[in-house]
Amino acid sequence: MTKPTIGWIGMGRMGFPMAERLVKAGYDVKVWNRTRSKAEPLAEQGAVLVDSPADLAGVDVLTTMVSTGKDVEALYFGENGVLTGKGVPGIFLDMSSIWHRPVRLTSARASLKRALSLSAHRFLATANA
């Protein structure tokens, strides 16, 4: 069995070490980050840096770990978004810390492209006074 190709968007405090573990485990990992310099150390370890989210359209699994629902939507559907490229990732795995409503809307839109969308993030909640 061959290992899946993994696309990763989001090289923050949680995203970088998670993607780094996949690279060290021998997976083919392609990464994009809004601030390219944050992803460059991972490229030195064997990851492939891509120029835009659209370049991740052909991966088997796409993981996103960003800060807002608007960011996720733009990364998937915006200009040069993942779903504007050639192909569709087989699985979308969003681990962003965002409200649940944008997650549901993004998931529904991704499913129209015949992709499996999984939400595996920590939902933000309001505190009751």
Task: Walk me through what this model shows.
The protein has four helices and six strands, in the order E-H-E-H-E-E-H-E-H-E. The protein is of the alpha/beta class and 129 residues long. The termini are far apart. The protein has helices at 15-24, 36-44, 69-77, 100-111, and strands at residues 5-9, 28-32, 48-49, 61-64, 91-94, 116-119. Strands 3-2-1-4-5-6 form a six-stranded parallel beta sheet, with helices on both faces. Helix 3 packs parallel to helix 4 (100-111). Strand 5, helix 4 and strand 6 form a beta-alpha-beta unit. Helix content is 31%, strand content 19%.
Strand order of the largest sheet: 3-2-1-4-5-6
| Number of DSSP helical runs | 4
- Kindly name the structural category: alpha/beta
- In N-to-C order, the SSE pattern is EHEHEEHEHE
**How would you sum up the global shape?**
globular
The main pleated sheet reads as: 6 strands, parallel
Multimeric status of the protein: single chain
**Share in β-strands:** 15-25%
Q: pLDDT average, as an integer?
A: 81
What is the CA-CA span between the terminal residues? 52 Å
Report low-confidence residues grouped into runs of 5 or more.
Answer: 122-129
The proportion of residues forming helix, as a percent range, comes to 25-40%
Give the number of DSSP strands: 6
